[in-house]
Amino acid sequence: MFSKEIAQNKILQWAFGSLLLSYYITFSGYFYSGTMTQSAYDSFRTVCRPWFQSCEQWILLEQLPYGYSQPTLYMLFFGLMLWVVYLIYKKEWREAQLSLIPLFAWHFFTTFFGTDLLLGNYDYYIIIFAIVLLFLPHKEFFLKLGLVLFYVLSTVSKISPAWIEGGYFTAMYTGLPFFPDWSIPLFTNLVIVAEMVLAWFLLSPNKFLQRTALVFFAAFHFYSSILVGYHYPTIVFAMILVMFGPWYRYTAPPFDTKSLPGWGLIILLILAQLSPKFIEGDEKLTMEGNKNGLYMFEANHQCISQAVVYGKNGETENIDMVSESARRRCDPYRDWFRLTRLCAAMSDINRISFTFDHSLNGGPFYRIVDTNNICALTYKAIGHNDWIHTENEAEIVGYPVKNHYR
């Protein structure tokens, strides 16, 4: 637990408070969400994670008006958060760490083994913050390095036409807030360079360089909040201010044996972010492995899916879907999951034909799925699924109009 580090370090104490705030704002959203409930699963609204497609055996909660178990659980968590606040006030850091473990465990389970519909980039941040603060030595250094690495790794998904050419924003009716379309590539490339290079200066012993980087990222987060809202900056920027703000001090990299778990965590982050690059095709188009790492603003998505349900009595029913915003990741896995569950649940279904058309950044619609019977297909969480066509295989079937962010 290494609670002495927190007890002797004001920066880590504030970081611990920032982590508690992250759980509060995240669980506030979970409280009102019905996507991880038994009724959501039974009505084909929820989707399990690709590597845990049998999550229904763990979805035991129910939301109002169907039951009280979910709000009861989150009120218990709320009480636990208040208890942690009291322990922080009493400066009983070991007890505070132990009391936070149930929140960490539930959030970890929900992120990796619960519904795919609750996942956000910020969940990965929270998990890394918690692992470092609860379990690892050299907490201050690895929190700082983790924050910088998140910036750097996010550029892996940004090195694409969405950001190099500015296609993410030029493909939207509203463009980039307050700036003309011609300037969009200038700003998007500035962000790429800043996250790839300037972020490292947050760790600098040179006060001018360190403060310059901090001011840039402060401006970046306030500006981007126009689009993303309060949730993301509350989790990320609060921790940035704690680690790199008024109390900042240079922290030398540790290389003793106690630092090995921390370096192992850093290597794991890098491998997770790079893993989609080892899967055939553009992960932003096929969405295979896309959520293994950071994926915020990786592409402006538009999609159209069409399913035809063929009953054994000869009747048919159409199920059509059109994406409503650039933020909706057009993942054929979600449709596959819902439709194959429908096949399994309804004995009167003979087969379901399915097409899925996907456009990135205002480019052409590629028909990445075209099958006569999606019920007969399986989905691999690791590697490429042959029934999902890559950009080199898929047929172009049309072109989109401009998109909306929300």
UniProtKB/TrEMBL annotation:
Source species: Candidatus Kaiserbacteria bacterium RIFCSPHIGHO2_02_FULL_49_34
Keyword rRNA-binding: no
Protein name stated in the entry: HTTM domain-containing protein
Domain of life of the organism encoding this protein: Bacteria
Transmembrane segment boundaries: 12-32, 72-89, 96-115, 121-138, 145-164, 184-203, 215-248, 260-279
Keyword tags: Membrane, Transmembrane, Transmembrane helix
